[in-house]
Amino acid sequence: MYKILKAEELADKIYLMDVHAPRVASHCQPGQFVIVKLDDKGERIPLTICDYDREAGTITIVFQIVGASTEKFAGLKAGDTFRDFTGPLGCASELVEEDLESLKKKKILFVAGGVGAAPVYPQVKWLHNHGVDADVIIGSKTQNMLILEKEMEAVAGNLYVTTDDGSYGRSGMVTKVIEELVKEKGNQYDVCIAIGPMIMMKFVCLLTKELNIPTVVSMNPIMVDGTGMCGACRLQVGDEIKFACVDGPEFDGHLVDFNQAMKRSQMYKTLEGRAMLKLQEGDTHHGGCGNCGGED
Amino acid sequence: MADMLKKVPVREQDPQVRATNFEEVCLGYNQEEAMDEATRCINCKNAKCIEGCPVSINIPAFIHEVKEGNIEEAYHVIGKSSALPAVCGRVCPQESQCEGKCIRGIKGEPVSIGKLERFVADYALEHDIKPTGAESTNGHKIAVIGSGPSGLTCAGDLAKLGYEVTVFEALHELGGVLVYGIPEFRLPKQKVVAKEIEKVKELGVKFETNVVIGKSTTIDQLMEEEDFEAVFIGSGAGLPMFMGIPGENGNGVFSANEYLTRSNLMKAFDDSYDTPIVAGKKVAVVGGGNVAMDAARTAKRLGAEVHVVYRRSEAELPARVEEVHHAKEEGIIFDLLTNPKEILVDENDAVKGMKVVKMELGEPDASGRRRPVEIAGSEYEIELDTVIMSLGTSPNPLISSTTKGLDINNRKCIIATEEDGKTSKAAVYAGGDAVTGAATVILAMGAGKAGAKGIHEYLSNK
Ligand SMILES: Cc1cc2nc3c(=O)[nH]c(=O)nc-3n(C[C@H](O)[C@H](O)[C@H](O)COP(=O)(O)OP(=O)(O)OC[C@H]3O[C@@H](n4cnc5c(N)ncnc54)[C@H](O)[C@@H]3O)c2cc1C
Ligand SMILES: Cc1cc2nc3c(=O)[nH]c(=O)nc-3n(C[C@H](O)[C@H](O)[C@H](O)COP(=O)(O)OP(=O)(O)OC[C@H]3O[C@@H](n4cnc5c(N)ncnc54)[C@H](O)[C@@H]3O)c2cc1C
Ligand code: SF4
Ligand code: SF4
Ligand code: FES
To answer: Are A119 and A29 in contact (CB under 8 A)?
Structure first.
């Protein structure tokens, strides 16, 4: 059992938790993830490690409600427990492995979309602690879904916040900000790290390819075990098939087949919609919601 | 009285009924039937059957106890050699192992050793008979990686010798392939696997789940920082292979491991569990081994029409004869001498069919089996919504890539000696599928025993 020490709602449908998991906390690096399972009957849900405290033996996770399992997670409070909490999984971010001196010479741009700000944060913080200041763009649909702005401000070089609907900060998508920074301000970046919804990463990659900025993305396909045993997480990267859980989750964004990856992540959409309905409506759930014409 | 030439028949669930449920197919002997079958064993002095058993169970001795009705005593005889008899009695390929050597088999059918072993073990589980362990511990700490049959056996044997053993398991449940691969209808998880693992716990073995060695910690750190004096690696061969044909990343193409894991480990067949599974209406399982049979029979139970697509002929099917027989009885269709060329997908990348080619058998290849060759121009398409790839697995590089000085061969298998599991790294032993590549439960158990012996000798002489 893994105890939740802190649980808070960061923004609309986005939650942060500190979980006691000493083995994970003693070995994790930025870029890695954990698999969390609520109870006996729960799903194995992958979540990025957003922060860690080796002394206290805790891991910070940030998640957004998208389906039945994350909805259940959202109901947990400090003092509650997860039955299972495995990790760290996947490979550490390449930055962490790189030579510090050469890293210090680099101009780095982070692009975070939605909850993607959570996995971006530990990398920016790690760089900051090692004397490297990176530029960060955080994009959010709207103001009340924006997370980690203050925390990011403390560790980023320049921080640019934008909302799709213009309700806070700049207005428009993250790609608009990248264009401004590079084309108008003339900023030169040696590497871009983009983490967020697949659709965002896809468009960031299309742009950075045009701008000739090498780009790393963190892929979040559907996973089961997270240890390389099932192949559910496979992706087409260049002419190779990669398992995101062991070969990634970070890949060269210019090589990833995003269209395929996005279709693959829709695989359980209808099934999951039903599970969600069942959860919300409890025993009253009877298949016919009026919109779908029943379960036939 | 039993017919001396024939096994006492074993009761099974009716094929029509069982094809729609996940209850166990084979119902096993009751005591009367078991005692009857036991009379067929002639208690050979130079018992060939023992040579056929990789963990050398004293088969005539336990069968003798069954004949006398001393079931508890029979359990203790088996317990000296095997920690998982209820499992082995169900899934060992007995026909090529113990029963393959039985003298009775020369003229007539061999003694039904597996079914007798199963009866004794189930009796012990039902009556909660405790295994006999060590009186006290010797204070030496051993780490075992993986809770599959090799790890469990090694841990159990070392605990019986008084070692303090901790098993580290990456997944959230114990048992390895026994829980995530082999389906409920062949090997019940709660009734058999969990209870048999409980017996290993009763020997004093500690278990830590959710620890991925190579990630959560490493073998070197276990020895340097946590004072483990020796390590046994029983991490299996879990990495699934794909064919590399077009369309293989389509929605609805699964590895057998994913399909079976969703159904067995995550219990997706049971609505009260959260993990989903796409049951499929028309399913092709590509491959012909035990794993393919399990995937096919699982898909059948989830309601699909199921085809096993295999490139050689029936005679070459690597699956156990009993499994193929059961699959056919349940209505699985075999498309033999057929090989996939491409998986066809619709505009959403969802599987809609498969292009296959007919094959014929040519000259024998390195495995001694006749090599399948394509018949030119014989391609055709079949309509499908799900394809399950069951082409075999190889060991995961997670451990070998994070352990200094641990040698592997060109198939990514850890190199270890057969008689004591010794690897290229001091104090590190290995066995089971991680060493041999995908094999069998009983061979993995044999390797676990060898590893325990190796570790005991190493620490005794240190
Ligand atoms: C390596 C990795 C790191 C991740 N890190 C985070 C994180 O830090 N914070 C966070 O909020 N989420 C993260 N995710 C995504 C998160 O795992 C999914 O949101 C979660 O599994 C959804 O579970 P659910 O039961 O609530 O919804 P599901 O039952 O899984 O389904 C909800 C919908 O989301 C789709 N879906 C299923 N799994 C995923 C997935 N893995 N990614 C995207 N869509 C999915 C389904 O098709 C379905 O339409 C990460 C995923 C991976 C693989
Ligand atoms: C579907 C299927 C059906 C089969 N049917 C039969 C049958 O009928 N009869 C038969 O004899 N054999 C059968 N087999 C084969 C048999 O199950 C295996 O040969 C046997 O389980 C191998 O045992 P093992 O202990 O070596 O490894 P496994 O059973 O694979 O166990 C390895 C364990 O190690 C864990 N692990 C891996 N890496 C790490 C790590 N880094 N850190 C911590 N833990 C780790 C895994 O999660 C797993 O639990 C079948 C296999 C499959 C897949
Ligand atoms: S363990 Fe397997 S091989 Fe040995 S006697 Fe039992 S069934 Fe036969
Ligand atoms: S070989 Fe057959 S008959 Fe002889 S002891 Fe073994 S089981 Fe009995
Ligand atoms: S999640 Fe199963 S192999 Fe990656």
So the answer is: no
Residue A226, pLDDT > 90, answer: yes
Better-scored residue on pLDDT, B395 or A95:
B395
Q: Give distance in angstroms: CA of B110 to centre of ligand 4.
A: 8
**From residue A267, how far is each of A172, A271, B250, B397 by CA, in Å?**
30, 9, 10, 28
Mark yes or no for CB contact B398/A227 under 8 Å: yes
- Which residue segments constitute the domains of chain B, with CATH numbers given? 11-126 (1.10.1060.10), 141-238+394-461 (3.50.50.60), 242-391 (3.50.50.60)
Domains, chain A, with CATH or none: 2-89 (2.40.30.10), 99-214 (3.40.50.80), 219-291 (no CATH)
Residue B60 confidence (pLDDT): 96
Selected residue with higher pLDDT from B143 and B410: B143
Would you state the pLDDT for residue A296?
A: 29
| B274–A275 CB contact, under 8 Å | yes
Pick from B300, B289, B375: nearest CA to B332 = B300
Coil, strand or helix: which one is A162?
A: strand
Shortest CB distance from B272 goes to which of A41, A225, A241? A41
| End-to-end Cα separation, chain A, in angstroms | 40
* Minimum-distance CB partner of B212 among A41, A43, A89: A89
| Nearest atom, ligand 2, residue B442 CA | 11
State the ipTM, two decimals. Answer: 0.87
Q: In this model, does residue A221 exceed pLDDT 80?
A: yes
Q: How far, in Å, is the centroid of ligand 3 from the Cα of A77?
A: 50
Chain B residue at shortest CA distance from A228:
B239
Residue B374 confidence (pLDDT) above 90 = yes
Centre of ligand 4 from the C-alpha of residue B50, in Å: 8
- B54-82: pLDDT as tens digits: 999 999 999 999 999 999 999 999 999 99
